Automatic annotation (TrEMBL):
This is Glutamine--tRNA ligase. Belongs to the class-I aminoacyl-tRNA synthetase family. One of its GO terms (molecular function) is glutamine-tRNA ligase activity. Keywords: Aminoacyl-tRNA synthetase, ATP-binding, Cytoplasm, Ligase, Nucleotide-binding, Protein biosynthesis. The gene is glnS. It comes from Candidatus Blochmannia ocreatus.
Length: 560
């Protein structure tokens, strides 16, 4: 058994622990059953950490099963991305990959078994009528006129369904349970429907497909799953899960279904179908757009597998529905980045500073640490020169902001890793726009306090105007402006038009940023946040290379 962090433990671990202790099961066997209809998202990460995590902890097994009974949505691309994302998170399934369609013949035979027991019938009501006949929570349902068909008639009609003798939607196979059951799920649920679509894996060999309710429990039983863990929406379906297994007389152990609450993340959509709509509407560039809550999007954004797992373990598993704040997720990557990201100086909104008491050609190499607390991360050279850039926001024309540690006329400020400068006078164009700030510097203050003991508040970053790299900054914001998207009618009405904002600026001329070996692929820019670093593809032929800094997270949780 692996050592588990306290917060990783949850009620499902306890159930399994008891089942092992009481010898109800010899070995725990879970499964992760994605539908290959899109890329995995952060909600799936929670289910993955639970299913694979339990198997790891109790030396059990976890299957990967593609729940691929919808021929219209399955795709090889999705299947491959799902496999890749699970492995990237650091998990591996037991043995071969399973597919619900592996059991398509067996499932068909189990359906025949139910018909032979008088427990299933072919219904020719339209889908609308089936819905109408089903009743409501307050009103009991009504029997379909096709419910009393003989077994022989049902066997004939079901094989006609399989042979393509019906049009789509004109017939389905239903379980014969109880149209007045207090549980709507038990009011003769649909077991098979007709779909004339080419399946990405089994082609056109079948035109009838089992529903999730019918196939899931049987696939679990065939694979010897001991604990079938799913989200709370399936709580009601548990009775049906057990009804089907009890009535098909399965000989293997009867798997037990347990439910936990799904992950709902503020300002985030966790549904493959809806995420696909964002792509189709060109709101994002694709499944791995850094704004997407997909595993591949988070990876591109700069999240590590460890940080995603840490998040899943921290939020825990319970039966309580909740909306998790985004800052929870961000905190998990921030603590990793704080330790591992080298610091880089860059200015986003540059304004030139000219140092009056330096000769025009003056440049000076200053050795600076890459990380304030980790000397083993080494040092680098930054160039100090007569002309430098600072961020315009670090300067204020009025003295009102002196408390905010800004540079103002007549006030001194420290340049990070360098000298103290004092703003003397400004140059403006005819429209009154600021062109540059003339400053004097104190040559005795290179990384030293002034000798006369005067106190300097504020440290700002800067970049040499003689040697710098053209830089693009990409700032990502939430994709949506509404925090609880499960409560809105149309999520597309709440898309944030400013989910990506780009700026042009400059960064220090750091050889490692430009290196083809990608020596630095993430960094911290003081006050701005943690960034991934990419070399621009577009500008490879231009003389000045461009670096793209894409923000992973801010340095601190922003105050709302
Ligand atoms: P989606 O709407 O994104 O397709 P789904 O539940 O239909 O979600 P599946 O591919 O069928 O997706 O899900 C595979 C597994 O992942 C299921 O066991 C499901 O319960 C789990 N899962 C999906 N979304 C979440 C979530 N938000 N939180 C926790 N588990 C989830
Ligand atoms: Mg689904």
């Amino acid at each position: 058994m692996k050592v588990l962090k306290n917060f990783q433990f949850n009620f499902i671990y306890n159930i399994i622990y008891k089942d092992l202790q009481s010898k109800k099961i010899k070995q725990v066997h879970t499964r992760f059953p994605p539908e290959p209809n899109g890329y995995l998202h952060i909600g799936h990460a929670k289910a993955i950490c639970l299913n694979f995590g339990i198997a790891q902890y109790y030396n059990g097994k976890c299957n990967l099963r593609f729940d691929d009974t919808n021929p219209e949505t399955g795709r090889i691309e999705y299947r491959e991305s799902i496999k890749n994302d699970i492995k990237w998170l650091g998990f591996m399934w037991d043995g071969n990959i399973h597919y619900t369609t592996d059991y398509i013949e067996e499932l068909y035979n189990y359906a025949i078994k139910l018909i032979n027991k008088g427990l299933a019938y072919v219904d020719e009501l339209s889908m609308d009528d089936i819905k109408k006949y089903r009743g409501t929570l307050k009103k009991s349902g009504k029997n379909s006129p096709y419910r009393s068909r003989s077994i022989k008639e049902n066997l004939f009609q079901f094989s006609k369904m399989r042979d393509g003798g019906f049009t789509e939607g004109s017939a389905c196979l239903r379980a014969k349970i109880d149209m007045s059951s207090h549980s709507i799920v038990m009011r003769d649920p649909v077991l098979y429907r007709i779909k004339y679509a080419t399946h990405y894996r089994i082609g056109n060999s079948w035109c009838i497909y089992p529903t999730y309710d019918f196939s899931h429990c049987i696939a679990d039983a065939i694979e010897g799953i001991t604990h079938s863990l799913c989200t709370l929406e399936f709580q009601e379906n548990r009775t049906l899960y057990n009804w089907i297994l009890n009535n098909i007389d399965i000989t293997t152990t009867h798997p037990a279904q347990y439910e936990f609450s799904r992950l709902n993340l503020a300002y985030t959509i966790t549904s493959k179908r809806k995420l696909n709509i964002l792509i189709k509407n060109n709101i994002v560039e694709g499944w791995d757009d850094p704004r997407m809550p997909t595993i591949s999007g988070l990876r591109r954004r700069g999240y590590t597998a460890e940080s995603i797992k840490e998040f899943c373990y921290r939020i825990g598993i319970s039966k309580q529905d909740s909306l998790i704040k985004l800052s929870f997720l961000e905190a998990c990557i921030r603590s990793y980045l704080n330790k591992s990201a080298p610091r880089i100086m860059a200015v986003i909104n540059p304004i030139k500073i000219i140092i009056t008491n330096l000769p025009q050609e003056h440049t000076e190499n200053i050795r600076v640490p890459n990380h304030p607390n980790s000397p083993d991360m080494g040092t680098r050279i930054v160039i100090f020169s007569k002309e430098i850039f600072i961020n315009k926001n670090d300067f204020s024309e009025t003295a009102l902001h002196t408390t905010l540690h800004k540079l103002t006329i007549g006030k001194e400020i420290r340049l990070r890793h360098s000298y103290i400068i004092k703003a003397e006078y400004l140059e403006k164009d005819t429209f009154g726009n600021l062109i540059c700030i003339y400053c004097s510097y104190d040559p005795s203050t290179l990384n030293k306090h002034p000798k006369d003991g005067r106190k300097i508040t504020g440290v700002i970053q800067w970049v040499s105007a003689y040697k710098y790299i053209n830089t693009e900054f990409r700032f990502y914001n939430n994709l949506f402006l509404h925090s609880n998207l499960s409560t809105v009618k149309d999520f597309l009405h709440h898309v944030n038009p400013n989910s990506i904002i780009t700026y042009k600026g400059f960064s220090e001329n750091n050889e490692e940023l430009l290196s083809d070996k990608k020596l630095i692929n993430l960094c911290q820019i003081e006050r701005e946040g943690y960034f991934t670093v990419e070399k621009s593809q577009k500008n490879t032929k231009t003389i000045t290379p461009t670096i793209i800094f894409s923000r992973i997270v801010t340095l601190k949780t922003p105050k709302l």
